[in-house]
Amino acid sequence: MTASVPSVEKLAIDGLDGPIETLIERPRDARPGIIAVCCHPHPLYGGTMHNKVVHTLARCALDRGVTSLRFNFRGVGASAGEYDNGVGETDDAVAIVDWCRKERGVTRFWSLGFSFGSFVAFQLASRRGAELLVTVAPPVQRFDFATLEPPRCPWLVAQGDRDDLVNHESVLEWTRRLQPAPEVRILPGAEHFFHGRLTELRATTGAWLAARLGENP
């Protein structure tokens, strides 16, 4: 399945620290009642909702007929507040899902994240009961995933084995200890930002999402 040109809605959603800059993309004939929340990489190192990997994750959802939502964490772009080491950022993501449920009638959501955004998406999935979780290059050496309760939903970890910021062996070691364990896809030769490999990441993630929906890629 390939997404048609989506409609685009830009808005500010109220969070604990003020407005959260948000971008919602809705495909034609979107599946009702479901949205994919996509979380961006580290705010202190240039991470925004326009990051190419996050954009790719949004495209994966749109390819499956699922509305995507990207947003800037506190202190990024037009979002109010300051960086909060993943705590306030997770609160931002929770506020987004709560808003979607109250204002848009969303009953199901996917939690997707890249790098630092994986840490937020991981917590969001547990706190608000995600239907699916996708974590791309989760920074297990920099943030304490191990003390957090893993979500019970189907979960994909995508990781490059040439990642210069996240050691893929550390990611594998972490995932092997988890119960239930996530499904892991290693992209040989891919580095942290998946330069030249975004099409492959989209295909890999898209195939996994399609399988969860009982569809062909």
Write the layout of secondary structure elements.
Blueprint: E1 7-15, E2 18-26, E3 34-39, H1 52-63, E4 67-71, H2 87-104, E5 108-114, H3 116-128, E6 132-136, E7 155-160, H4 168-176, E8 183-187, H5 198-212
Parallel strand pairs: 3-4, 3-5, 5-6, 6-7, 7-8
Antiparallel strand pairs: 1-2, 2-4
Report on the structure:
The longest helix has 18 residues, at 87-104. Strands 1-2-4-3-5-6-7-8 form an eight-stranded mixed sheet, with helices on both faces. The chain is built from five helices and eight strands. By secondary structure, the protein is an alpha/beta fold. The model has no long low-confidence stretch (mean pLDDT 95). The chain starts with 6 loop residues before the first strand and ends in a 5-residue tail after the last helix. The radius of gyration is 16 Å and the shape is globular. It has helices spanning 52-63, 87-104, 116-128, 168-176, 198-212; strands at residues 7-15, 18-26, 34-39, 67-71, 108-114, 132-136, 155-160, 183-187. 31% of the residues lie in helices and 24% in strands. Helix 1 (52-63) runs parallel beside helix 5 and helix 2 (87-104) crosses helix 3 (116-128).
